[in-house]
Specification:
CATH superfamily of the largest domain: PPM-type phosphatase domain
Strand content: 25-35%
Helix content: 25-40%
Radius of gyration: 36 Å
Shape: elongated
Strand order of the largest sheet: 15-16-25-24-21-22
Largest sheet: 6 strands, antiparallel
Distance between the termini: 92 Å
Number of strands: 25
Oligomer: single chain
Number of helices: 11
CATH topology of the largest domain: Phosphatase 2c, domain 1
CATH class of the largest domain: Alpha Beta
CATH architecture of the largest domain: 4-Layer Sandwich
Length: 544
């Protein structure tokens, strides 16, 4: 608070209560009538400290942001929503508060022992050096190896091991070192399972020194390094949970690993050594957690990069812009709802007098659906003049059903338009295209059918309709008609029919924009839940 001297107050209780001066029970009393009698508390868990709002009228703020419950990190600033009010700087248990708490004891040890390298002050210097190293920019394994070396030196252990938890929470050795700073083969140490189990059960550091208690452990230990330990120390490493709903950071925290040390000397690890060891372990947990975050961030960016490439490839395979044939004008557009989608459309000539026009919608989204669209596109685009589309469809259906582990099927509309206007088509449960003729809009069909790849017993047949010059076919995916507004009302086929009526002479690119803009207006900012694809084909009188 302005005008008052800086003070340092150790967090000695949990909950550590903060409130207005003059009210019994507060561990930190603030002389300001604007502050509530009980405004905040700091709670200590196995993994760290948490700040809680205990009913402050003006709110509790962490680094300028109002909170109700939040994990505290070293250097965080706590304020109370009052101009020119108190500002409290938090120092974690591995920072000023804990080190100051141990300093007086270490100073006494130092006075008794002089400057002996094993004195408390020497241990403190080693801890500070290790803490500084842990926040360096060296490779993670180098930092962790140095941390393990410092832990062995501080505790006067003979050897140590860093274990890391796998995705199932099982501890696996990652590093092993001896007292001379040399790496040991991981198989040379069989950690005492009893001390590890007890540390994990209690979620705190554990010191055990009774060799009889661990006879079973010692019998199974491999003697590659000939040490018969009599003292054991282990502590689990936990990630500090940042879930505001959690009360503390203890049982719900993610297990990152454990540090294990042992020594030939009975009762080698004192209580003071254990406290220093625990402080160092918290820093080691921080490094492991940061390393995991960095790895996950790297994987996320790599996945985003791969999805970006997949989207670029998928879009590159689709036809671009308007295509003119002697008897047909066609154009299409596709908007995936995520990076890659399950919709696709295509049009391509088959000989001089026939053009294929098709649209498909694969179930699901993402890479799996995108892979299937690419497979379908490859299978159909290679169709030759003499190929029977019905036979091709039945073959594709059988192939997908025989490989049901693919887990996807597709609705499709495939058509072949001849120069004379005859349209042969195969429907596979896809929404019926709309036929715009003379200002009126009708559906090509209303009866149902089966998707490709859903039922092995399904068979597909071809039907035909005669187009007249000026007719326009409007093909679309259900992402158009099932687009929802904030009230979850769908755009619908009737709205699309009403929109298209009277646009028989509208250029196809303009008509395409009209459809997309109308869908967008209908949604009013609601998130796109499905891929949107539109394909327009207009038949002309065949040229001479």
């Amino acid at each position: 608070m302005p005008g008052l001297p800086l003070q340092s107050v150790p967090v000695t209780h949990s909950p550590f209560l903060i409130g207005r001066l003059g009210h019994a029970g507060n561990h930190l009393e603030l002389e300001d009538e604007r502050i509530s009698r009980r405004c905040a508390a700091i709670l200590k868990g196995h993994g760290g400290y948490r700040l809680e709002d205990r009913g402050s009228r003006t709110g509790v703020f962490l680094n300028g942001k109002r909170v109700t419950s939040k994990i505290l990190h070293d250097g965080d600033t706590i304020t109370f929503g009052i101009d020119d009010g108190y500002s409290v700087r938090f120092r974690s248990s591995t920072g000023t508060a804990t080190i100051h708490g141990m300093l007086s004891r270490m100073a006494g040890i130092h006075a008794a022992n002089g400057s002996h390298p094993n004195s408390g002050m020497s241990k403190l210097n080693l801890l500070l050096e290790a803490t500084s190293l842990l926040h360096s920019h060296l490779p993670v394994d180098s930092v962790l190896a140095s941390m393990l070396d410092h832990a062995i030196t501080i505790t006067k252990a003979d050897r140590g091991m860093l274990l890391e938890a796998d995705i199932n929470g099982k501890l696996k050795p990652r590093l092993a070192r001896d007292s001379s700073g040399q790496s040991l083969p991981l198989e040379s140490i069989s950690p005492s399972q009893a001390v590890l189990d007890q540390a994990l059960e209690q979620q705190t550091g554990v010191v055990l020194g009774d060799p009889e208690l661990h006879a079973a452990d010692l019998k199974s230990e491999k003697k590659v390094v000939h040490i018969h330990p009599h003292s054991f120390i282990a502590t689990p490493l936990y990630a500090l949970s940042d879930d505001d709903a959690a009360e503390t950071a203890s049982p719900c925290c993610e297990l990152l690993g454990a540090i294990y040390l042992d020594s030939r000397h009975p009762a080698a690890f004192s209580e003071l050594v254990r406290h220093i060891f625990d402080a160092l372990a918290v820093e080691a947990a921080s490094i492991l957690e940061n390393a995991r975050h960095m790895m996950r961030e790297h994987e996320r960016r790599l996945m985003e990069h791969e999805l970006g490439l997949a989207r670029a490839i998928q879009q590159a395979l689709l036809p671009k812009g308007r295509r003119e044939y002697p008897y047909l004008t066609v154009t299409g557009i596709n908007h995936p709802c995520i990076e890659v989608g399950g919709d696709y459309f295509d049009f391509f000539p088959i000989g001089e007098n026939r053009t294929a026009v098709l649209i498909a919608d694969v179930s699901g989204h993402g890479l799996g659906a995108a892979l299937l669209t690419t497979m379908l596109q490859g299978a159909l685009s290679g169709m030759t003049t003499n190929a029977d589309p019905v036979h091709v469809f039945n073959q594709i259906n059988q192939f997908l059903c025989e490989h049901s582990e693919v887990g996807h099927y597709a609705t499709m509309f495939f058509s072949l338009l001849d120069r004379d206007g005859t349209l042969h088509y195969i429907k596979a449960a896809h929404p019926s295209p709309l036929l715009l003729r003379g200002g009126k809009v009708t559906e090509l069909y209303t009866d149902g059918s089966f998707p490709v790849g859903l039922l092995a017993e399904a068979t597909f047949t071809a039907e035909k309709v005669q187009l007249e010059p000026g007719d326009t076919l409007v093909l679309f995916s259900d992402g158009v008609t099932e687009a929802e507004d904030p009230e979850e009302k769908q755009f619908g086929v009737p709205s699309l029919c009403e929109l298209l009526a009277g646009h028989e002479d509208t250029p196809l690119e303009e008509l395409e924009h009209i459809i997309l803009d109308s869908v967008d207006c209908h949604c009013r900012g609601a998130a796109q839940a499905d891929d949107i694809t539109v394909l327009l084909a207009r038949y002309h009188a065949p040229s001479a």
